[in-house]
Amino acid sequence: MENKEKEYSGAIVNGFNMIFIVFVLIPLLGVASFLLLPMEAAIAISVVLFIIFVLGFSGYFIQEPNEARVLLFFGRYKGTCRKTGYFWINPFMTVRKVSLRLRNLDIQPIKVNDKVGNPVLIGMVLVWKVKDTYRASFDVDAQSLGSVNSNVLNNFVRIQSDAALREVTGKFAYDSDGKEHEMTLRGGGDEINHMLETKINERLAMAGIEVEEARINYLAYAPEIAAVMLRRQQASAIISAREKIVEGAVSMVKLAIEGLESEGIVKLNDERKASLVSNLLVVLCADEPAQPVISTAAVQE
C-alpha cells in the first residue's frame, strides 16, 4: 500500500530564536526606526514590525521523542514534522499532534468456532503503533482538538483485530485429536502468533497502523462443552498410559520367560507359559498391587 506521508520541507524556526526575535529584536528595531528614520518611514516600519510581533505570539510547539506533527495549510497536507525540540512554525499552519509510541491493547476472550466447529474462548494482547501519520490522520475519522484521538484509533484496532482473530481461529482445531502432524491452536505457538500478526497488519495497513506483536494470551473451550472435552482428554490420556503400560509389561514378561529358560531354572510347556504370562500381565497391568494367593492343595501335598 502506497505511503502518502512526506517530510515537511517548509520553514521551521527554533523556538528560542523566535522568542528572541519577537520580544527583543523587534522592539529594538521599532525604537531604532523612530530614532534614526523620518516619522513617515518609522511609522510604516513600526506597522510591519507590529504585525510580525503579533504573529510571533502563536505557532510555538514542543515535540518529544516518538511524536509527530501533521501540518496543513488551509486544508492542504504539507508534510509531517518528526523533529524533536522547541519550534515555531507559520501560525496559519494547522498542526495535529500524532503519538508514535507503542501502545498495548488487551482483546478480551471472544467465543469463536474452531476448524471442526467446537466453540472456544480465545483472547490476545497486541502491541501496536502509528506508522503512517497521513493515513492515521486522514483515512480514519479520529481528529479531536488538534490531535489524533487515541480512543478512536484504539477502537479501530480492536474491531479489526477481533475480525482477524476470528479468521485465524476458524482455520485451526483447538487440539490435534490424535493427528500429530496437524497444527492446532493449543500447540501452534509462535506460528499461530505470527500468522495472527500478519493478518492484523493486513487489516490495519489502511489506517497507517503497524502491529509489533500479537500473542494469544487466553485459550479454552467454551463453558457449554468444556466438561465433555475434559472427559475426552482424560480418556485419551488414560488410553495412552495403558498403551505404555501394556507395552512395558509384554517386554518384561518376555525377559522373564527367556531368563527362566536360559538359566535352566524351570522347564515350561505351552500351558504353563500361558499361565505365567497371564499372571504376570495381571500383576504388571493392574491398577492396584496384586495380592498373592497360595494354593492349599499344594500345601496339603
Account of the 3D structure:
The protein has 301 residues and is an alpha+beta fold. It folds into 3 domains: 85 residues, no CATH class; 119 residues, 2-Layer Sandwich (Tetrahydropterin Synthase, Chain A), CATH 3.30.479.30; 74 residues. Helices cover 47% and strands 23% of the residues. The chain has a 3-stranded antiparallel β-sheet. It has a 3-stranded antiparallel β-sheet with strand order 4-3-6. A hairpin with a 2-residue loop joins β3 and β4. α1 runs antiparallel to α2 and α4 crosses α5. The termini are far apart.
Series of H and E elements = EHHEEEEEEEHEEHHEHHH
Helix content: 40-55%
**Total of helices:** 8
Number of domains: 3
Total strands: 11
Q: Within the CATH hierarchy, at the fold level, what is the topology of the largest domain?
A: Tetrahydropterin Synthase, Chain A
The major β-sheet equals: 3 strands, antiparallel
* CATH class identity of the largest domain: Alpha Beta
Give the uncertain stretches in residue-range form.
none
Q: Let me know the average pLDDT.
A: 82
Q: Distance between the terminal alpha carbons, to the nearest Å?
A: 96 Å
Strand order of the largest sheet: 1-5-2
Radius of gyration: 39 Å
CATH H-tier superfamily of the largest domain: Band 7 domain
Strand proportion? 15-25%
Shape: rod-shaped
Label the structural class: alpha+beta
